[in-house]
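Q: Got one fold?
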Amino acid sequence: MASEKNVSKIIKELGYEPKEHACIVVNYAPDDSLGSKLSHFFTLEYYIMQLCEEEIVFIPLQAIFFAGMFPKKEIALRIPYDTLQSVKITEVEKTLNYEVTLTTDTDTIRLSVQKKEWSEFRSAGTIATGNSFLSVGALAVNSKDGKSINWHRQNLDNTFSLLQKLPQY
């Protein structure tokens, strides 16, 4: 799976300036319509959201793996900070997720973010620890030096803090 170091390297190679420890795993949050929920259920695509100096950059996770670690800039979605009107982070009741709503000059984007407390047992932890599903969990959380290797977990609070400080026009 993708290590934070590799993600940062790819973001830099694409011409962006990533902020340190401001990278998490997200996916699209469906609205309440059945069609949206079905579409989400069948695709379940995950993205890496990286806060950079001037923008938020999203890279489809599959692009990192299937592009031989060298994705093209065209596959990245970029949201410049100066187009943001609001950022809202809410805890979704009765789930293990947060919802991040980014409202820009022209659109509203709703993202689902897995809570850090359970991320080792869910997709975000699998992606962020570099372990397959079968080796994710309490035993796969620590590296040799005893520090957490789940960068989604490590970065969630910092990323949310930075998102909430973005200019609100």
User: Anything to note?
Assistant: Residues 19 and 62 are 22 Å apart (CA to CA). The helical segments are 4-13, 34-43, 61-66, 123-129, 151-164. The radius of gyration is 16 Å. Residues 132-142 have pLDDT under 50 and may be disordered.
